Amino acid sequence: MAVVVLAALAFSVIYSEWWWFAGAVGYVSLLTGLVFWQSLRRLRLPYRAGAEWGVGLDDQCLRIADGRTEGLYRYSTIARMDERGGLVIMKIVRGQRVAWPRELFGDDLLAQVRRRVDSR
Q: What residue ranges are annotated as transmembrane (predicted)?
């Protein structure tokens, strides 16, 4: 039904005297949509392709990059330390648990993360 209405509207606009106005509105709508889409792409954490290996801390989150993706994890999403000493993190977007190995972090960094997780 919506396709029929849009087709009828497009036909009436094309064959009317106001085709230039409809074209201008369409062009502005397209530009606005592209700008909005680009801003959504920038907000699409926690994954970024092509990230290099590394781990970082700040007051709000833990950054983990494994060579393919980069994750920004708030301390509240770190579920627990697993039995081997790694981190089990609840992914924000997909809602699944991922275990990061202890070797990726090192003992000093794990101790800092553990203190921050326990303080929350």
A: 18-37
